[in-house]
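Quick question: what would this complex look like in 3D?
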Amino acid sequence: MRISPNGKAEPLHSLFEFPDRYEILIDMPLADEGTLSVTLYKRVLKVRALLRETIKIGEIEVREYIKILKIPDEVEEEYEVEVVEREGPIVVVVFPKAGRP
Amino acid sequence: MVPVDVWEAERPKPGANLIIGFVDVGLVGVIAARYMVEELGMKMIGGIDAPSELPLSPVKEGVSQYPIGIYYKHPWLVLLPEVPLPPSLIYPVAMAITDYGERRGVERIISLTGLANVQRIRKDPEAYWIVNSVELVPELEKLKEVAKPLRDGVLYGPTATILKVTKTKGIASITLLADAFPEFPDPGAAAKVLETLKAVYNVEIDTKRLIEDSEKIKARLQEMAARAKEMVVERGQPTMYA
């Protein structure tokens, strides 16, 4: 994971395509769900959250997650967000495909 | 073939079980192997390296390590890689591991790994097994009691190579898998394979601490998971069962 010198880490993500939608999963272990923010602007998704506790990776202390993703061209800009607990929070962002029935 | 060096300061007794946890789907193998080394208090007795292909040295507490450590506490011999294997090394390392196991008279080789499952976010992991030969594995009935056989399909990656190479040499080889996130570290799946290992082979290991610390383990291993994903892309093949 990429970590900036000021303690912001880019968490891992997976993108799954289904016939009617895309699902983006963002793995954010130790994230404080109360600080979670999900925004979309000009087809760029930004997901941020503070960590419940500072962790050290190498010599850098990580305090915050930030994920920035360009969403696929064929999805609509409305989306749903769900947080699933699987050994830590995983943020699920669902984008319906354009032109779906 | 790429030269692979095996170094050991101590020779394990014959009859050990050789456990391998590659850096693969969900990092299940490496999480499980590392936890086993810690819980059993195993001692590092050697290492495996391919210096021409791996110009690197993991460092722990100021001491350089081999890319693949060999840990031992009879009857358990664990190979613990610290880095993902590039495609050029999969076959040479699999051959080196199998030759080493044969020379040291191991009873069997057991690979621990994850089975990529896109539904993992909605389900707890289940355990599965693959053996290289029904004739070579006397504990097959016990395996059937505690886990499901992996049905028809194709296995990719270093674990697949181990199964093939050991089949040729007539060494019993078992792969234990658990449903895992394709691209995220998955300590829950690692705990499942360890519980399966315990149920079949009576290893004294308690996964409680692994489950309690799973979130912290996930956070610390995100970088390794990202590198493993890059290696899968470089191989041009999925590691998932297809």
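Answer marked as accepted. Chain A has one domain: 8-96.
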